[in-house]
Amino acid sequence: MNNNTKIEEIIKSAPFTEGEGSVYFLGIGGIGMSVLARFFKSRGTKVSGYDKTPTLLTAQLESEGIPVHFEDNIELADKNAAFIVYTPALPQDHKELNFFKQNDFTLLKRSEVLGLITHGFYNICVAGTHGKTTTSAMIAHMLRHSGYGCNAFLGGIAANYETNFWNSENNVSVTEADEYDRSFLKLSPDVAVITSMDADHLDIYGTEENMQDAFISFTGKIKSRGLLINKYGLQRAKEFKGDNKTVYSLVNKEADARAENIETRNGYYSFDAIVKENTIKDVQLFMGGRHNIENTIACITVAKHLNISDDKIKDAVATFKGVKRRFEYVLHSNEHVMIDDYAHHPEELRALITSAKELFPEKKCTVIFQPHLFSRTQDLAKEFSLVLGLADEIILLPIYPAREKPIEGVNSEMLLEQMRPMNKKVMNKKDLLMEIKQSKPALLIVAGAGDIDTMVEPLKEILINR
Questions:
Q1: Is 126 helix (H, G, I), strand (E, B) or coil?
Q2: What are the Cα distances from residue 195, in Å, to 36, 178, 198, 269?
Q3: Are strands 23-26 and 83-86 parallel, antiparallel or unpaired?
Q4: pLDDT tens-digit profile of 296-344?
Q5: Paired sense of beta strands 268-275 and 278-285, if any
Q6: Cβ neighbours of 322 (radius 10 Å)
Q7: Tens-digit pLDDT profile for residues 69-125
Q8: Which of 130, 330, 332, 411 falls 20 to 30 Å from 352 in CA-CA distance?
């Protein structure tokens, strides 16, 4: 019996019998780690973990009965764990991580555990450098809301259910397939969706071509007789593996699936969905962003493949509330619109800003952006500067380092210098609050993948209180 088979049997046998231990997470507050913690907790297994700082998500885990500590301290670690799940984002000098390595504990990356958990499921896996979280959450909602049923392993908090995980008696999983650290190559899709393949994570891949190679390898993981659903126009799509493919687009008639008769209605959309020879009339999407129409087309394509009825599909789309921090309306009134988004890549920002300006053309657009990672900012500086210039006013926060150390000469001021002449500035969080208190922008976008989410409620309160 190989090690993976043994670990898979341990995972499937949860909750563990007395003496077999628990599961311990290093980096439990990450969105991908927390979904696994919730899975094991749902199986009745004892779960605990470490993370660097307290967040809303760690507070939710604690409220669900999962202890979390925030000090890298071996004395606080669970030494009875059957195995340790860790994130590659941990620094190499992490005390707890090194303790477990030196004492022959079984350590598994998040991606390995997710692959083993979902191995026996009918797997719907959604990949892409952007769009995958909303798309996977909507597919999971469609299956749950329609009564089809699924297990969900999501990379964001589904607003309908206030969680990134749920289980089902139906042996089907909807899984966000993360390209970071080649994690998605541990999955075994029956249906694979690829939403985008723009250059990202070059600190891992080195070149855009290497990253594209990983996506091509991902398509090679699709099971025999499986289906690939990919966005129209992706580079190197001809190299994707498999014989059963469906291509979707926003409106391109060369695609197998697309939208027609798109109408804007007070920040939301209606459209007809075309999937090959089938037409679903007057689909109502109650979330902003034209790119989300395209994501919806991908979701409808999956639902049609599973033979879910048109009426159930329409009802699921109309009731989908989106994902926290994905074009999330924090405020939506005649006086103020405030949108919060996880966007941290130039193409995500382009979709965010252009969609917001399309939906609210009469409002001046102010964007607060916190760059994420020194390496990403350095690699995509030109692209960031061009896209941010689409706004009417830009306020940049200092770069959020996450797992990285500073790179000399790489900072938010560097982006500012490359942007077109406009109202632009770099500010700390305290000065930012004073700035917004004075300006009270009509259309405010808060974007970034760091800790900028902690600013959302204070900014909302400023706009609410005249």
A1: strand
A2: 24, 12, 10, 20
A3: parallel
A4: 999 999 999 999 999 999 999 999 998 988 888 999 888 999 999 989 8
A5: antiparallel
A6: 25
A7: 999 999 999 999 989 999 888 888 999 999 999 999 999 999 999 999 999 899 999
A8: 411
Report which of 295, 320, 343, 321 is spatially closest to residue 445, judged by C-alpha positions: 343
- Average pLDDT (267-283) is 94
d(CA 271, CA 437): 38
- Please tell me the distance from the alpha carbon of residue 290 to that of residue 352, in angstroms, as a whole number: 9
CA end-to-end distance (rounded Å), the chain: 67
- Inter-CA distances, 221 with 114, 187, 382, Å: 15, 7, 34
- How many Å apart are CA 190 and CA 81, to the nearest integer? 32
Burial of 367: CB neighbours in 10 Å, binned 0-12, 13-18, 19+: buried
Query: What is the CB neighbour count within 10 angstroms for residue 84?
Result: 21
> How crowded is the C-beta side of 50, counted as CA atoms within 13 Å?
21
* DSSP 8-class letter at 41: H
* Main-chain phi, psi angles of 449, to 5 degrees: -105, 5
Q: Give the pLDDT confidence of 33-55 residue by residue, as tens digits.
A: 999 999 999 988 999 999 998 98
Look at residue 50 and give its three-state secondary structure.
Answer: strand
Query: In whole angstroms, what is the distance from residue 123 CA to residue 390 CA?
Result: 39
pLDDT digits (tens, 9 = 90+) for 137-169: 999 999 999 999 999 999 999 999 999 999 999
Identify the pLDDT of residue 311. Answer: 98
DSSP 8-state code for residue 70 = -
SS3 435: helix
DSSP 223: P
How far CA 205 is from CA of 219, 262, 306, 326, in Å, comes to 18, 38, 35, 26
Widest pairwise Cα distance in the chain: 67
